[in-house]
């Protein structure tokens, strides 16, 4: 059967078979999580994820849905980037000009880019991961403290307000680091776009 084919036809058939073989090779999958939780803290991270999910489910009553969705998005960075994207989008939709809008936009950009790190932004990414974890832990601690303490004690109220201020400062630091990571990724992409492959010497 092959003998009746002309050489170009044979080449076309071979090329087609090669393309089919390449297409069947599985492509590397994008990891589900954006951050990898440290092995010694994975149980704590899962507890934080569950806590933030509970806050999202009750946020309407407390009128705090932008914040609840934002924190749930941060928690989902350890679990599922699709879930994180959904909650950052929800935080943005709930308050497009709110305090969590800019950071939600940055995270959505990073998640859309796939979260591939270059050597230059690895340190920033690690610093951001650590701050994200600390914000989630502090948020859980604040809620536990507020639930245990009576409202009538001024000293306790001051302590909670102090913790909330610290939490806001860390959230601002996350915004700053996230913005820096996003800027580095843009610079790397611009450099890649400008660099053209050199022609081989004859």
Summarize the helices and strands and which ones pair or pack.
Layout: H1 7-24, H2 42-57, H3 59-62, H4 65-76, H5 81-94, H6 101-112, H7 122-148, H8 154-194
DSSP, total strands: 0
Mean pLDDT: 74
- The unreliable regions are 1-28
* Radius of gyration, taken over Cα atoms and rounded to an integer in Å: 24 Å
* Quaternary structure type: single chain
- Rough outline: elongated
Integer count of domains? 1
Q: What does the main sheet amount to? A: none
Proportion of strand residues: under 5%
How many helices? The count is 8
Secondary-structure content class: mainly alpha
Report the span from N to C terminus.
Answer: 41 Å
Helix and strand run: HHHHHHHH
Helical residue percent band: over 70%
Describe the structure.
This protein is mainly alpha-helical. It has one domain (30-188). Helix content is 71%, strand content 0%. Residues 1-28 have low confidence and may be disordered.
Structure in a nutshell:
With 202 residues, the protein is mainly alpha-helical. It is 71% helix and 0% strand.
Characteristic key phrases:
disordered N terminus; elongated; 202 residues; 0% strand; mainly alpha; 8 helices; single chain
């Amino acid at each position: 059967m092959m003998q009746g084919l002309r050489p170009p036809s044979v080449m076309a058939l071979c090329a087609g078979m090669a393309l089919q073989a390449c297409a069947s090779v599985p492509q590397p999958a994008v990891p589900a999580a954006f951050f990898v939780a440290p092995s010694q803290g994975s149980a704590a991270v899962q507890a934080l994820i569950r806590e933030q999910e509970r806050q999202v489910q009750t946020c309407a009553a407390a009128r705090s849905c932008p914040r609840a969705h934002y924190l749930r998005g941060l928690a989902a960075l350890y679990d599922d980037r699709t879930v994180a994207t959904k909650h950052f989008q929800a935080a943005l939709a709930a308050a497009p000009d709110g305090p969590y809008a800019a950071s939600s936009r940055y995270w959505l950009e990073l998640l859309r880019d796939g979260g591939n790190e270059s050597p230059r932004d690895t340190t920033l990414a690690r610093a951001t991961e650590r701050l994200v974890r600390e914000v989630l832990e502090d948020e859980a601690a604040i809620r536990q403290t507020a639930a245990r303490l009576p409202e009538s004690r001024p000293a306790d109220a001051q302590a909670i307000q102090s913790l909330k201020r610290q939490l806001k400062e860390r959230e601002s630091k996350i915004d700053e680091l996230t913005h820096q990571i996003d800027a580095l990724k843009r610079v790397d992409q611009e450099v890649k776009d400008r660099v053209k492959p050199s022609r081989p010497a004859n």
